[in-house]
Known about the structure:
The protein is mainly alpha-helical. Helices cover 52% and strands 3% of the residues.
Amino acid sequence: DGTRVIKKASRSNRRGAERELALIVSAMEMKPGLRRIKKITFGKMCDEYLETYIKVNHRDWRTEGYILKQLKGFFRPDTWLQSITTRQVERFKAARTGEVAPATVNRNLARLKHLFNTAIKWGYLYENPARPVKLLRENNRRLRYLTKDEIDRLVAVSSRNLRPIIVMAINTGMRRGELFNLQWSHVDLKNRIIEVADSKNGDQRFTHINDTLLNTLQLLPHRIDTPYVFPGKNGARLTDIKNSFSQARERAGLDDVRFHDLRHTFASHLVMAGVDLTTVKELLGHKSTKMTERYSNLSPKHKANAVRVLDRLSSEASEESLPSGG
């Protein structure tokens, strides 16, 4: 009835204990309302989950498929789903914590928990081993953006394939998945507009092409074997630039920079140039201004320059208070 029962075997040897277990299971199956779960490997469960649930309910299913691929890499595809324990999930959480940001760890855990819940509904599990695992506390205060000098250094040392991706990320604020999904049919060079069709929030938005990005896009080849602006191997959708980006930031001396910081760079420089937060919100595709408000936390130099405007007011007031010569 959903209550866990722990029973010590009366026999001391393994074979006897297994026989006793078989009798207990048989007795359970005789009771009405109880069901016997079907055995399935973790890899097959991930594949069935991807085809039956993810592809049906997620527009950007490839990104979720990438998360499942990472999960299979850790838990191994041939592992029986029923054998995965809470301790193993905690180990996965610890391993990912040393590799990515807390928000990414939480997203991985959320996908894993939902996969296990779906397995229960489909008759593959009795209970969710990831349920007791707590999510990490996310630190959303980190706001790393690149200065103009850092941008120039990063672009200069990037590979030929990576360079246009970086230029577009910095000049549009598009997310990595949105860049990977971008097709030439979404790019209007004549009117300088890009349609971001597969956004994270599922909403369509448009962003504009400035001179820097226009020059970059005009130099990109239009391959007839692929619709993608940034195709991967054999013209397929690009799925990963981790290695090339890591190499570029190392050569540029920017070890603390993540790819998502290019999006921060786009938004921060717009705000520092005087663009209002509502416009920045629309360009980023945020649902509300709450996420956009973080970009008002700008560099001390920019704030100092803003405060110096008051010097002019003070000097004018001082000049007006001086006695006029007679």
